[in-house]
Amino acid sequence: MDTKGNSTIDELFKAPETIKMADIDSYVAVLATCNGNNQERILHDVDNLFAKLQNHIQLLSMYFKQRYIVRDVIAPSKEEISFYTKQEVAVRYRVSMRTITNWIVAGLETTLIGGVIRISDTSLQEFIKNNRRRKYGWRSISKTGKA
User: What are phi and psi of 94, to 5 degrees?
Assistant: First the structure.
């Protein structure tokens, strides 16, 4: 593999080997003199520095995993499964939330994800195909006279 143009990246990968504790110690000492030995400010600056480094490394890791590794391992097929909330389905089909609840009672398959009822796109399409002409009526309490 040719890495001539990637000297910055090579340096980044070598950083754990090349950065010594003494280097970090001298950096913190400079921070201490700049901040007038204000310990809270020094701790804040050091935490900010390491948080930025950690965040940058995690973002790099996630980017490359998603771009080159995860897409082939987790989702080898091009078919993507989408999940919707009851409200999203109601908006999509221009019906009320009560209608979606009636659909669920009538057999629309749901999945509980994160404590929220989700409806997959495939189960929704199948339900719509099988129940295209069915009416979902319900009686109002005022019409039946029951309280």
Answer: 55, 50
